[in-house]
Design goal:
Order of helices and strands: EEEEH
Shape: elongated
Oligomer: single chain
Radius of gyration: 12 Å
Number of strands: 4
Mean pLDDT: 82
Largest sheet: 4 strands, antiparallel
Distance between the termini: 11 Å
Protein name: Transposase
Number of helices: 1
Strand content: 35-45%
């Protein structure tokens, strides 16, 4: 999953998270001055392993 943007071009990033009992869904959004871009939603298990996977995923996506 690759977002469609140029590295170094974005000035703000945020993560949206929807928490449920068994899983949670996250999406990373990158914003420029006049437009935005986001990754596809990713589902993780709502436990310690899922949280660790989420942290790894968000760090990897933020560096792209």
């Amino acid at each position: 999953m690759k977002p469609n943007f140029e590295p170094g071009k974005w000035f703000m990033q945020c993560v949206g998270i929807d928490i449920a009992k068994g899983t949670f869904t996250a999406c990373l959004c990158m914003y420029e001055f006049d437009q935005g871009c986001s990754t596809a939603p990713v589902v993780f298990n709502n436990d310690k392993t899922g949280f660790n996977q989420f942290v790894k995923w968000s760090r990897k996506e933020a560096l792209k």
